[in-house]
């Protein structure tokens, strides 16, 4: 036996194990096909969560004096709503956020520091609206729900 015969035998055995023969043609066995992994539902980004919460937080739900709300246009309400939400969400205590609607309606929203109540973030707020030459002030406490929406839990 020559010395190359010892080394050639395992190589030939490995090569032949990967293929099958059927008659004169040689065919190769197909490797198993692996299906792609499909991920579960994706979580909303912080920007998406903020936009949804902004859309669902409304000044009509106790953030503005009802007498002022009756005099405000749709644009006034939209501007007041945006200012209210962003003041509660991101505002610094004592730094009022101003807004201006159409036809002279204006307002400011001032918030206090965050306070943790029943596992929710809450803040005191003061929303002042000037419309039709009169000032309307609404004070209260709002809490951020698990969904990100702000709701008035106590109004004065």
Strand content: 25-35%
* Largest beta-sheet details: 6 strands, antiparallel
Mean pLDDT: 78
Instruction: Give the helix level as a range of percent.
Output: 25-40%
Number of helices: 4
What structural category characterises the helix and strand content? alpha+beta
What distance lies between the first and last C-alpha atoms, to the nearest angstrom?
A: 104 Å
The shape is elongated
Structural description of this entry:
This is Surface antigen. This protein is an alpha+beta fold and 156 residues long. The protein has a domain at 58-155. It is 31% helix and 32% strand. It has four helices and eight strands, in the order H-E-E-H-H-H-E-E-E-E-E-E. The longest helix is centred in the middle third of the chain and has 17 residues, at 74-90. The protein starts with a helix and ends with a strand. Residues 6-16 have low confidence and may be disordered.
Keywords, separated by commas or semicolons:
156 residues; alpha+beta; six-stranded antiparallel beta sheet; 4 helices; 8 strands; 31% helix; 32% strand; Surface antigen; signal
Summarize the structure.
This protein has about 160 residues and is an alpha+beta fold. It contains four helices and eight strands. It has helices at about 5-15, 45-55, 65-70, 75-90; strands spanning about 20, 25-30, 95-100, 105-110, 115, 120-130, 135-145, 150-155.
């Amino acid at each position: 036996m020559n010395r190359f015969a010892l080394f050639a035998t395992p190589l030939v055995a490995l090569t032949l194990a990967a293929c099958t023969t059927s008659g004169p043609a040689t065919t190769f066995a197909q490797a198993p096909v692996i299906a792609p992994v499909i991920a579960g539902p994706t979580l909303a980004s912080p920007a998406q969560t903020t936009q949804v919460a902004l859309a669902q937080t409304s000044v009509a739900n106790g953030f503005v004096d009802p007498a002022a709300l009756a005099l405000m246009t749709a644009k006034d309400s939209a501007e007041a709503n945006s200012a209210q939400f962003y003041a509660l969400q991101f505002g610094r205590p004592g730094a009022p956020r101003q807004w201006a609607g159409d036809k002279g309606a204006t307002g400011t929203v001032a918030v206090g520091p965050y306070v943790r109540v029943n596992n929710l973030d809450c803040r005191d707020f003061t929303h002042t609206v000037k419309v039709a030459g009169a000032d309307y002030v609404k004070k209260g406490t709002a809490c951020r729900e698990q969904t990100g929406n702000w709701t008035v839990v106590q109004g004065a």
